[in-house]
Predict the structure of Lipid A biosynthesis lauroyl acyltransferase.
Amino acid sequence: MPALRSALKKWLALRKHRVRRSFYGRIPMSSVETLARCAWRTRSIYDATCRASGRVRSEIGRDVLNLPQARARRACVGAYIEKLIDQRIYFGRDIRKHEAWPDLEQIARTLTAEVEKLRREAPGRPVFISPFHFVSQYANIYIVERVAALLGLQSMSVVSGVPRNQYGDDHALIPGIKVLYTYGDTNRNGLGVRVARSLKRDGVAVLFSDVPPFTMHRYPMETVEVSMFGKSARIHNGVFRVGETFGAVLLPFYLRFSRGHFEARLFDALPLDAAESPQRLAGYIETALLDNYEQWLPAGHPAMYAFAPSK
């Protein structure tokens, strides 16, 4: 009987995965926001955690960032929009093996042109492409994978703390991305060495420089003091230490998503060895939050950038 129960559980899990894959992999992007609103409103009726999480996201936008009430309310469904887009991109590729997104392709071409411009202006100076945590992790990964292809690289190294294989085998489906770090990585202390090797080999790597320190409370990292929203704040210092060592520049950008279409805002490149760069990066993060807090992935924690587990 135990063997039969185990086999039945595996069969049911497989059927559930196939149904989920078939459904989410075919959702029209134009329907994502509507479906996300319906999903949150329905679940918040009976799920107190879902209801509270949405309200906290909304209240932080209203009370901390002073956003208009209509924008603050839209923050309630940000996590649902992220999950729908992630699954649509992931399962869509799994079903069709290759799927092009024109909006994301154009963003990738724009980033590639900017990287090539920076290389012409300062040959040999490495570039960190830095997506901020907005809209969807898989949308950001799609973009940097396309940038790698346009630059003629076989793979792109990405420093990330996002858990792997949330929907399936990431490496099999996204072979052009080499993740250098995830939570629970046993070789976490060697992260700097691996980043250095990637920069020397490819001249470009990807790093999410806007990650709030509170998200790393299990693995505290060095931070640097800056000013955000008129108050003292802290952001991670690792990118500046590595960047100073190699004379690297940071190319930050963030995504927006509306009515089924993606767009991106690129910031001016930052020389990471400049003394004013931490504060300039903090200013970029603040600008992005004021513009698109509703779709900021770490939204919902009252600390934001005001708390760091390690200085």
